[in-house]
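Q: What structure does this chain adopt?
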Amino acid sequence: PSTPLSAVDVLDLAICNNPQTRELWANARAQAALVGVSHSAWMPSLNSKAALNRIKSDDRYETQKTASLTVSWLAFDFGARQAALTNAEQLLLASLATQQASIQSLFLAALQAYYTAQASKAAVESARQAEVAAKTSFNAAETRYRVGTGTPADRLQAQTAFSQSTLNRIRAEGEARNALGSLANIMGFAPQQAIVLQESAPLLPDASFQRDIDQLMQDARKQRPDLLAAESQVRAAQANIDLAKAQGRPTVTLTSGPAWQETAGISSNSGSLGVAVNVPIFSGFETTYRVRNAEAQAESKLAQRDRLQQQVVLDVWKAYQSLTTATQSLQTTNDLVASAEQSEKVALGRYQAGVGNVIDVLTAQTALASARLQRIQATLDWNVYRATLALAMGALDYSLLQGAAEGRP
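A:
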C-alpha cells in the first residue's frame, strides 16, 4: 500500500490477498463440479471398443478384428439419481453458505486488526502527551528546587514520573508496531510491510442497534450463513437416506449399438437393441446398514443444526449486551477525559504558581493518562462489538462502514 489505508481499503486487501478466501472459493467450485457429476447420471453414455487378436487354429494363424459402439441409458432407478442430485445441490448450498460465513469471520478479523492498530496509534499519541506533561512537571519541580522553594523529594518524584511516562511511551510504540504487523498479515503481506493508516474521525456512537432483542434473534435465525449451511446439510443428509434406499432397488437400462467383426478376411456387421433389468436379491444386508448409517448421519446433522440455533441466539444476546455496555462506557469516558484534563491544568497551574504540591500534579497527570487510555479502549470496544453484533446477525458486510465513509457515525 502506497497511500493511507481506510477500513474499506483493509477489507478489500484482506479479501483479495488472504489465502483463506482462495481456499473457500476452491471448495465451492469443487462442490459445484460434484453437482455436474450428479447431472451426468441422467445423460446416456456412449462407449466404443476395438480389438485385434491373433488366433491359432490347428497349424494356422488367423487375425481377428472387432469393433463395436454401444449406447446405454439408465431409464429407471427408483429415484437414486434424483436423490444423489438433491444431495449434491444441498451440499453446494451449504458450501456457499459456509463460504459466506467464513468471509464474514474474515471481515471481523480484519476490522478488529484495523481498529486495534488505530487504538495502538492513539495510545502512542496519548503516551507522548503524558510524557510531555510529565516533562513539564519535572521542569517545574527542577525550577522550584533550584530557586529553593521545592524539596529534593518533589524533584525525585517528578523525575520518576517522567521516566515512567517515557517507558510507557516506548511500550506503546512496540505494541503499535505489533498491531501493524498483525494488520499486514491479515491483508496477506509480510509483517514488516510499511503501512500508514488514515486519520480516524472522532467517534460519535449512535444507538440504532438498540432494537427489540427478540426481533434481532429472529432475524439472525433467518440470515446467519452458518445456520443456513446447517439447514442445507440436514436436507442433504435426508436426500442421502433416499439414495441409500434406492441403491437396493432394481434398475432398468436400455442399450443399443452396431458391431463389426472380421476374421480370415471375412467380415460381418451386426447391431443390438436390448433392455437390462438388474434386481438386487441379497447383498449381505448392505442396503439395510447403508440406510441405517444415512439415518444416523441425518439425525446427527439435525442435532448440530439445533445446537447451532441455540448458539446463534446466545451470540446475538452477548454481542448486543457488550455493545450496549461499550456505548455507555464511551459516553462516560468522554466526560472522564474532559474532567481529568481540567483537573490536570488546575493542579499544574497551582504548582507552577507555588501554591500546590507535586503529588497533586502527578496524581492528576496519572488520572488523565488513565482516562485517555480508557477512552481509547472504549472506542476500540465499541467498534469491535458493533462488528461482532453484525456478525452474530449474519449481516457483516461493507454497509457497516458506509456511515464512516460518509463522515457519519
